[in-house]
Amino acid sequence: MAAKTHKVTLVPGDGIGPEVTTAVVKIVEAAGAATGAAFDWHTFDAGADAFAKTGEYIPKALYNSIEQNRVALKGPVTTPIGGGFASINVTLRKKFDLFANFRPIKNLPGLKTNYPGVDLIIFRENTEDLYAGLEVMVVPGVAQSLKIITEKGSTRIAKAAFDYAKKHGRKKIHSIHKANIMKLTDGLFLDCARKVATGFPEVEYKEHIVDNTCMQLVMNPYQYDILLTENLYGDILSDLCSAFVGGLGLVPGANLGAECAIFEAVHGSAPDIAGKDLANPTALLQSAVLMLHHLDEPATAERIQAGIEAVYAEGKTLTKDVGGTSGTKAFADAVIAAMESAA
Ligand code: ATP
Ligand code: MG
């Protein structure tokens, strides 16, 4: 079979990043070898490691590579708390205007959680809100952070969520907000979502206040289909929702813009388990599955997804976070073996 070669920018990141990235690349290569998809990985450091080598947190060569390839697979990069270090993740999302953060939350067959059969999607606005990073020390002892919500930003994320719902036959969208308190910012977000909703009569549109949503999700996540959120609420709700499907080791994500897309897990660099072969690569692997669909390689994507599902259904080679005793590498090898025996 003539292989089609996809150029993909690869950022292993730090903490557990290099371990999960190595596992994922190995699996994607194995799947591609069977389906006729080939990959040319352009690998770059980012964050503290890049700074030590190049003097830049995000090397110019990495920016150029994403600009050219238009698609990247990215491991987590640590953002130290406080200090003058801008988040690499936020900087990349802003630089490439990756305004839509897409996070599907779906149980894997065979992995028991307290919430079986959850299937919901978070569409998180990815470029503004309190993450605009506009913070000042007004006077000593008083700090201020500006919450930026724009008509443009709110409308395009709402449009992305409704377009997705229509295309994929999803039934319901809830805007999540706190407009009772933040009447102008969250009020504008809701106004924009309502306007977009009028163009999609086939999709039911509702609004829930964010604190109530946390309670409602824990009581009954099945009432939700798509959650449409600003940046901060989406970040917090993603971690909450990850618990439905087995935790942060499972949930994938895509950062989508008009020109480029960066695929990365919801989780961070988990320094507590880094370098110990303990990390679960499933979240980044399912992010790679999203990437393969984006690259129009559905056969490769489905082969990997089937491999993941077979390993979870068998339940013998799972990582510690989901109740197993296997390491990152053994899990990856089990997925490869499952893909091969399914063929
Ligand atoms: P960030 O600020 O970057 O979102 P965070 O504070 O939310 O980071 P994470 O790094 O995402 O924290 O991880 C929280 C905890 O979840 C980790 O300490 C780790 O124990 C667990 N965890 C996260 N990702 C994984 C994974 N892939 N496999 C196993 N455990 C994980
Ligand atoms: Mg987090």
Automatic annotation (TrEMBL):
Its EC number is 1.1.1.41. Coiled coil: none annotated. SUPFAM superfamilies: Isocitrate/Isopropylmalate dehydrogenase-like. Residues 7-335 form the Isopropylmalate dehydrogenase-like domain. It is an enzyme of class 1 (oxidoreductase). SMART domains: Iso_dh. GO terms for molecular function: isocitrate dehydrogenase (NAD+) activity; magnesium ion binding; NAD binding. Gene3D superfamilies: Isopropylmalate Dehydrogenase (3.40.718.10). GO terms for biological process: isocitrate metabolic process; tricarboxylic acid cycle. The keyword Oxidoreductase applies. It comes from the Bacteria. Keywords: Oxidoreductase. Belongs to the isocitrate and isopropylmalate dehydrogenases family. This is Isocitrate dehydrogenase (NAD+). It comes from Granulicella arctica.
